[in-house]
């Protein structure tokens, strides 16, 4: 499906990002993987190499524009082009009441989740426009759709990513580049499996399907949006949440 294509995935050391890198590799793509976690990123690289795909890994803080530009420039130089960009990296775990959330944490969330997505998109979009071809998939969250209590800062960043995706899509579709967004609901938190969801815990309670999603299920949606089979899907935010209950 992706023979001759190169995909760059941020946040590829674990979770959805790791599953996406592996799925792209299984479908014939060359893969560029990016993360701040050197040890886990190396594990992802080894798994991709076992599949037989060409892969390059970069340690990168996506909130650092200079670092992002260096990675993007080197990746394009080494592979010749980047056809697919998956902006997946982000921060998530902090939960606190709005009045108890320090401004510094708000800034950190926006620097990584929003500005990191902006930096990689700005770095790689020009070469897509030059070739009149590109696929950009941003990973948001249902928190950006519904708004989650005690996660106002996180919800705000994911809402920004959804809006950014819709607006940018309208600017670049006539130039051959599609932009879409996915919003996962609860996803299996297991670090050992990318293929299974969970029938226990909050994820099972939060959706009518009565389980959480798997990293692989999210990766499959990302790969579909990155394929030419999805060419008429543009500027959309697709919720992948097992029919989540609004909370």
Report on the structure:
With 247 residues, this protein is α/β, with parallel strands linked by helices. The chain has eight helices and seven strands, in the order E-H-E-H-E-H-E-H-E-H-H-E-H-H-E. Strands 3-2-1-4-5-6-7 form a seven-stranded parallel beta sheet, sandwiched between helices. The protein is globular and about 45 Å long. The chain starts with 5 loop residues before the first strand and ends in a 7-residue tail after the last strand.
Using brief descriptors, characterize the structure shown.
7-stranded parallel beta sheet, 8 helices, alpha/beta, globular, 247 residues, 7 strands
Describe the SSE topology:
Layout: E1 6-10, H1 15-26, E2 30-35, H2 38-51, E3 55-59, H3 65-79, E4 84-87, H4 103-131, E5 134-139, H5 143-146, H6 152-172, E6 177-184, H7 202-206, H8 215-226, E7 237-240
Parallel strand pairs: 1-2, 1-4, 2-3, 4-5, 5-6, 6-7
Helix pairs in contact: 1-2, 1-8, 3-4, 4-6
Q: How are helices and strands ordered from N to C?
A: EHEHEHEHEHHEHHE
- Gross morphology is globular
Derived structural class: alpha/beta
Q: What portion of residues is helical?
A: 40-55%
Q: Distance between the terminal alpha carbons, to the nearest Å?
A: 38 Å
Q: Let me know the number of strands.
A: 7
Question: pLDDT under 50 segments (min length 5)?
Answer: none
Mean pLDDT: 96
Radius of gyration: 17 Å
Output the strand order for the largest sheet: 3-2-1-4-5-6-7
The percentage of residues in β strands lies in 15-25%
Report the biggest beta sheet as strand number plus sense, adding barrel if it closes. Answer: 7 strands, parallel
Tally of contiguous helical segments: 8
């Amino acid at each position: 499906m992706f023979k001759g294509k190169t995909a760059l995935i941020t946040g590829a050391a674990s979770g959805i990002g790791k599953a996406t890198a592996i799925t792209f590799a299984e479908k014939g793509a060359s893969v560029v993987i990016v993360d701040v976690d050197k040890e886990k990123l190396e594990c992802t690289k080894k798994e991709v190499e076992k599949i037989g795909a060409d892969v390059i890994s970069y340690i990168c803080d996506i909130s650092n524009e200079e670092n992002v530009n260096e990675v993007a420039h080197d990746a394009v130089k080494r592979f010749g082009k980047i056809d697919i960009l998956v902006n997946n990296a982000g921060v998530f775990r902090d939960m606190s009441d709005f009045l108890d959330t320090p401004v510094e944490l708000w800034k950190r969330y926006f620097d990584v989740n929003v500005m990191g997505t902006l930096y990689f998109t700005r770095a790689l979009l020009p070469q897509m426009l030059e070739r009149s071809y590109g696929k950009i998939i941003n990973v948001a969250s249902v928190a950006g759709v519904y708004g989650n209590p005690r996660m106002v800062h996180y919800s705000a960043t994911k809402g920004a990513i959804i809006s950014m995706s819709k607006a940018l899509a309208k600017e670049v579709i006539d130039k051959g580049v599609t932009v879409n967004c996915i919003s996962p609901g609860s996803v299996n938190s297991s670090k050992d499996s990318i293929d299974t969801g969970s029938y226990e815990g909050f994820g099972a309670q939060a959706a009518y399907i009565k389980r959480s999603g798997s990293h692989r299920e999210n990766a499959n949606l990302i790969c579909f949006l990155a394929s030419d089979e999805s060419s008429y899907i543009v500027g959309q935010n697709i919720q992948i949440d097992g029919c989540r209950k609004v909370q």
